[in-house]
Design a protein that fits this description.
With 355 residues, the protein is an all-beta fold. The protein has one helix at 11-14; strands spanning 47-58, 63-73, 90-99, 104-113, 119-121, 127-130, 133-137, 143-149, 152-160, 165-166, 172-174, 182-199, 202-217, 225-235, 240-248, 253-261, 267-270, 275-284, 291-302, 305-313, 319-321, 329-337, 340-347. It is built from one helix and 23 strands.
């Protein structure tokens, strides 16, 4: 959902001598999502992401968590510049594997500008690639990803069992008090996963469930925002629950939202007063010094009733530290909840996000 677009700050070093103003389109209410086109790239917007998280189980019955995220951003620049070397689009990717037997996160990163056979994000349908990393949607509706990182490889297929879930007002998702602070956003929950995971030269078959988020925007966060907490949960009864809060730099919640769709398709859209996160236990990273609320109680209001779900991580040390690549630090972890599983993302705890 609220993917880690703070990495766009590194584009200041890439887009040297660019014009001060680039005419990015702004998000507005009234969007009509169109598929398969909205699975593909929206290159005029400042940034977007394709984000998949999920739980896997090996043939031996071991649980694993995984994350595959591709980001596209349009740096400021002159669209009339005829040079093939002008960076009109930049792509980033993160991938991670959570293995409780090791108690740590394995992760890798990629970054490249579009073109020259290095990276691409096509329009019309999903097909995003950075060198040998790829996420694409096939004509039969299934998604496929291949990732080869240091320490692990993923080759996974995601088979939709439910239609896309528009977030917010039909796909227009507010992130702040100002109407332009938001994104166009939809999810595809309850993806059936099959494929292989390779570690240490040993390849094993896996099956599981996943959650796909798609967002694109030009003005994502308010200046007073510090970061966010977000969760996407596949519940055992077929329901899908997404909730988030945007945190203020001075503490407290700036904005909140989300949705609950039941198996029969009934959808409840949450407003800012319908979602609350409460820290139950924290974990402090030795590597970065950041302290994360890794066990949280999520309270939502549905039909006038408040329902609380505890989010408990697969293990605590699921921080993704990408500072070596000039990218941000955040916590992205597999979590359990009574009657379901999903992922929790915590950003802005090591440092405020810079958009």
């Amino acid at each position: 959902m609220l993917r880690v677009c703070a990495m766009i700050a590194v584009l200041g070093a890439i887009s040297v001598a660019a014009p001060a103003a680039t005419p990015y389109p702004q998000v507005r209410p009234g969007i009509v999502l169109r598929f398969p086109a909205d699975h593909g790239a929206h290159p005029t917007f400042r940034t977007e992401w394709w984000y998949v998280t999920g739980w896997l189980r090996t043939a031996e019955g071991r649980d694993l968590g995984f994350q595959v995220t591709f980001f596209r951003t349009r740096p400021p620049g002159d669209p009339a510049n005829p040079s093939r070397f002008a960076p009109s689009q930049i792509l980033f990717a993160h991938a991670a594997l959570s293995d409780p037997s090791t108690g740590k996160l394995l992760h890798g990163e990629r970054a490249a500008r579009q073109g020259f056979g290095l990276a691409s994000a096509t329009t019309g349908d999903a097909n995003v690639a950075i060198r040998d990393w790829r996420l694409r949607r096939a004509a039969d509706g299934r998604w496929h990803t291949t990732i080869a990182a240091d320490g692990f490889k993923l080759a996974l297929t995601f088979d939709p069992t439910q239609p896309p879930l528009p977030q917010g007002q039909g796909g227009y998702s507010r992130k702040g008090a100002r109407p332009g602070e938001g994104s166009y956003y939809y999810s595809v929950p309850h993806l059936q996963v099959s494929g292989t995971v390779e570690r240490g030269g040993r390849r094993v078959g896996v099956r599981g469930s996943a959650w796909l988020d798609r967002e694109w925007s030009s003005n994502y966060l308010a200046p007073e925002a510090q970061g966010w907490d977000w969760t996407g949960l596949n519940l055992d009864d077929g329901s899908a629950l997404m909730a988030f809060r945007i945190r203020r730099k001075d503490g407290g919640t700036l904005w909140a939202g989300g949705s609950l769709r039941t198996r029969d398709g009934t959808t409840t859209v949450f407003g800012p007063n319908d979602v609350a996160f409460r820290s139950v236990a924290t974990w402090r990273s030795r590597a970065t010094g950041a302290t994360y609320p890794v066990i949280q109680d999520l309270t939502i209001r549905v039909g006038g009733k408040r329902i609380t779900r505890r989010l408990t991580p697969m293990f605590a040390a699921q921080e993704l530290d990408a500072r070596r690549s000039g990218l941000p630090v955040y916590w992205e972890g597999a979590v359990r909840t009574p009657g379901g599983r999903g992922y929790l993302e915590l950003t802005g705890y090591a440092a405020p996000l810079a958009m």
